[in-house]
Amino acid sequence: SSILPRLSGVPSPTGCKMVYYVYILYSKALEKYYVGSSRFHNKRLRQHCRGQGYWTRRAGDWKEIFSKTVASREEAVRFEKQIKKRGAGRFLAGFKAELDCVLEKDG
After folding, report:
1. What is the 3-state composition of the chain as percent helix, strand, coil, each rounded to the nearest 5?
2. What is the value of pTM for the model shown?
């Protein structure tokens, strides 16, 4: 097995393209959001909840409230920065408003 890191967007040995996840966590105890990205979504969430993240170890009640799959690490980093620049709360409010609008049109 190779110890070299796999390049983003390069097909895995099984022929599947690797995906990355951008996610937003919320801690009720801190009343704070955390925005992150990872290729190993579930593993990374467990690490946050176990206090194994530098910033997220301040609370143990993190809940995932948003996630999106993207095709490459570059896209994940770009989207993560976009959310952080806007602010997770404002991003989620805008996302909810767009969703409500779509649901109204369909209903």
Report:
1. 40, 25, 35
2. 0.71
